[in-house]
Specification:
Elements: H1 2-35, H2 43-94, E1 100-103, E2 111-119, H3 120-123, E3 143-149, H4 152-162, E4 169-177, E5 184-186
Parallel strand pairs: 1-3
Antiparallel strand pairs: 2-3, 2-4, 4-5
C-alpha cells in the first residue's frame, strides 16, 4: 500500500511538473507570437520615434514662446514710443513754438527749402471740423514745411506729392535755408 501511495504521489508530482512546463511553454510561444504579430512588431521603435517627435515639438513650442515674448516686448516698446511722440507733438502744438513739418531726408547733397503751406478748405469761413475730419484744424494758418531736395523744382514736386493741390493745400512762399550762416535766400 505504501508503494502504491508513493507511486501515486510521484505520478502526481511528475504530472504537476509536466503541466507547469507545458503552461510555461504555452506562455513563451504565445508571447513570441504576440511580439511578432503584424500590429505589434515594431512597437518599441515606434514608441522611440514618437518620443523623439514629442521632444522636438516641445523644443519648437519653447522656441516659439520665446520669439513671441520678444515680439510682444518689441511691440510694447513701439507703443510706448508712439505715446511719447504723440505727447511731444501735443506739447509742441500747445507751446508757443512753431511746428515744422519735414519732407525728405537731410543730406549733404540736398538743400533745405522752406515753404509756408495752408489748406484753403480749412482756412475759409464757415469751416466745420466734422466736414474735414481728416484735415487738422491747424491748417487754417500757414504751416512751415521744410523740403530737402536738390533743386527748387524738385522741392516743389515733393511738396505737391505730400500736400496735393487737389486736397486744398497751397504753398504760399518758398525759401532756401543756408546751413552756414542761417540766412535764407528767396527761391521762388
Amino acid at each position: 500500500m505504501w508503494k502504491d501511495a508513493a507511486n501515486l504521489m510521484f505520478f502526481g508530482i511528475a504530472s504537476l511538473g509536466l503541466a507547469y512546463a507545458a503552461g510555461k511553454l504555452v506562455l513563451l510561444v504565445g508571447e513570441c507570437r504576440i511580439r511578432h504579430h503584424d500590429g505589434v512588431r515594431g512597437m518599441g521603435a515606434t514608441m522611440a520615434c514618437r518620443a523623439r517627435i514629442e521632444a522636438g515639438l516641445q523644443a519648437r513650442q519653447l522656441e516659439r514662446s520665446r520669439e513671441l515674448a520678444t515680439l510682444e516686448a518689441e511691440i510694447e516698446g513701439l507703443h510706448r514710443r508712439r505715446k511719447q511722440l504723440e505727447r511731444q507733438l501735443d506739447e509742441m502744438q500747445k507751446a508757443d513754438g512753431h511746428l515744422i513739418r519735414i519732407v525728405g531726408e537731410e543730406d549733404r547733397r540736398k538743400k533745405c527749402y522752406t515753404f509756408l503751406v495752408m489748406n484753403k478748405y480749412v482756412s475759409r469761413r464757415g469751416f466745420h471740423q466734422n466736414e474735414y475730419a481728416w484735415i487738422d484744424a491747424s491748417w487754417q494758418h500757414p504751416q512751415t514745411v521744410e523740403v530737402w531736395a536738390r533743386s527748387i523744382k524738385e522741392a516743389q514736386e515733393e511738396l505737391t506729392k505730400h500736400y496735393p493741390v487737389a486736397l486744398g493745400y497751397e504753398a504760399t512762399k518758398g525759401r532756401m535755408r543756408q546751413h552756414d550762416n542761417g540766412s535764407g535766400t528767396d527761391a521762388g
